[in-house]
Write a sequence for this structure.
């Protein structure tokens, strides 16, 4: 800015210097053109030493670089350099003076570029008989400019100092506002942020203090709907859309109130009729984003499915642990009997184990869903560890057509069986599983000899979080209900003969006609 100021000032001073020198040259030319000797000499049109001497004396008094007098033909009659006398005037700017007009021009003559004031010489009759040209070479103009700039130099230095100090203060404030990051670092962070948002399988939106959506990642746009405006692709002058246009329930929940918005986790909010789990992280309470927040959200069904998978994994771990303990115990028994020299008794123990395993496998021979069979075998080992009599009702059957719904069956049977184990609370008891199918679908019953469902929980047994076992429980049955209902089935519980029975009914798989055999093999039979 200071350099620009100096350039502008120099150009302005140069123009003023030219104007002042031109006026000075014009004044001198007017005086010379009116002298009688000049008029007569120009009219005579021949060189005159006295004329040249007089003109050079006037030039010295006027401090001009040259005063040239020419006749009507433009031949020099007076010139500072004697050897230039009698030669034509240079510059090509005599047309207007010979036409009777005074001019100020900048042209190159024999002495160099100069500012000239030219005045016509007229005789008594008013006829133009010659021309007077007074000039100052351009270094004279620049000398005036340099002098003026030197006088202004302190002001230029002051402007430079103030500008530099102001720029440093603004730069320091700006760097503090952008966390002392360089532009390339900011660009890298923005690129990383976009990559992270694109990689997340959780929806993320940012909302400012006025309830307008300022950021939406791909997953959020997918969940909110195809009409969602992506703020990062909108023109800068566009106004972000209000959150209420896309998600009225969340907008109502986060509407500004007297208390500032606080961090909230796993809020259940409806979106287009579907339950969504939302985490809210408030932004700063001051500035343009005051009262804004960032919300991450995911479909509750996905979260429940993940919880189910975790439950299955934990169940398999428990089963493997139980099997390990049981087999270690059996091996220890066999080892002890052999060390005591009682091989016959060891053989009887081994045969008894083999027979029990064979009987259990015989009960499951008609259940043709391998994952369900594996689950029941594992639950048997778990029951033995807990001292529970675990049985599969004779006649249980399920065709291979149900393999497509194996996840739902494993979830239902696994959760209901584990709940039955917990209902016995470490006391000896019986848990029986019945599995069967008919042309209308499949039926599963899990019966236990426990005390039953507590009266305060029975009415809301299948509600998420409902449990008599403490905080953090009550999600298994809600997950089972969701999966069963997704297939068009139903689940209920009842008390029968002092036992608690959970019944799951699933319709036949779509576009499938279940093959039926004899009635006793098709219809589920109630365990004895």
């Amino acid at each position: 800015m200071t350099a620009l100021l100096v350039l502008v000032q120099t150009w302005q001073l140069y123009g003023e210097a030219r104007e002042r020198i031109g006026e000075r040259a014009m004044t001198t030319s007017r005086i010379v053109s009116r002298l009688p000797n000049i008029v007569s000499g120009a009219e005579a049109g021949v060189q005159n030493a006295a004329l040249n001497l007089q003109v050079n004396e006037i030039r010295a008094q006027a401090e001009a670089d040259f005063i040239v007098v020419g006749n009507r033909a433009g031949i020099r009659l007076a010139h500072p350099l004697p050897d230039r006398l009698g030669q034509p005037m240079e510059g090509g700017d005599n047309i207007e003076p010979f036409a009777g007009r005074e001019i100020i021009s900048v042209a190159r003559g024999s002495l160099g570029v100069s500012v000239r004031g030219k005045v016509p010489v007229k005789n008594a009759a008013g006829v133009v008989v010659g021309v007077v040209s007074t000039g100052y070479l351009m270094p004279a103009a620049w000398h005036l400019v340099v002098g003026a700039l030197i006088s202004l130099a302190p002001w230029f230095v002051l402007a430079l100092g103030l500008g530099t100090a102001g720029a440093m203060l603004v730069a320091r404030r700006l760097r503090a506002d952008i966390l002392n990051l360089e532009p390339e670092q900011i660009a890298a962070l923005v690129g990383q942020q976009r990559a992270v948002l694109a990689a997340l399988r959780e929806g993320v939106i940012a909302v400012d203090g006025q309830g307008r959506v300022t950021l939406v990642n791909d997953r959020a746009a997918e969940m909110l709907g195809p009409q969602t405006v992506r703020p990062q692709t909108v023109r800068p002058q566009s106004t972000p859309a209000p959150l209420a246009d896309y998600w009225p329930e969340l907008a109502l929940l986060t509407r500004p109130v007297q208390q500032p918005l606080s961090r909230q986790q796993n809020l259940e909010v409806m979106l287009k009729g579907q339950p969504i789990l939302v985490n809210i992280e408030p932004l700063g309470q001051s500035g343009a984003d005051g009262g804004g927040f960032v919300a991450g959200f995911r479909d509750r069904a996905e979260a429940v499915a993940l919880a189910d998978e975790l439950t299955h994994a934990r169940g398999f771990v428990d089963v493997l642990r139980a099997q390990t303990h049981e087999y270690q115990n059996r091996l220890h028994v066999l080892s002890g009997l052999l060390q005591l020299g009682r091989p016959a008794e060891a053989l009887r123990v081994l045969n008894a184990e083999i027979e029990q395993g064979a009987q259990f496998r015989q009960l499951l021979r008609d259940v043709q869903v391998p994952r369900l069979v594996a689950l029941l075998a594992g639950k048997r080992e778990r029951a033995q560890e807990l001292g529970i009599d675990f049985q599969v009702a004779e006649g249980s059957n399920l065709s291979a057509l149900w393999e497509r719904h194996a996840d739902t069956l494993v979830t239902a049977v696994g959760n209901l069986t584990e709940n039955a184990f917990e209902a016995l609370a470490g006391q000896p008891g019986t848990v029986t599983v019945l599995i069967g199918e008919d042309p209308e679908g499949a039926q599963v019953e899990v019966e236990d000899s426990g005390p039953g469902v507590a009266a305060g929980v029975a009415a809301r047994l299948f509600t998420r979080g409902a449990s008599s076992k403490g905080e953090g429980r009550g999600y298994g049955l809600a997950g089972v209900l969701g999966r069963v209902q997704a297939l068009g089935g139903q689940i209920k519980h009842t008390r029968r003969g002092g036992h608690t029975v959970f019944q799951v009914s699933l319709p036949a798989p779509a576009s499938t006609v279940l093959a039926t055999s004899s009635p006793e093999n098709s219809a589920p039979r109630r365990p004895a």
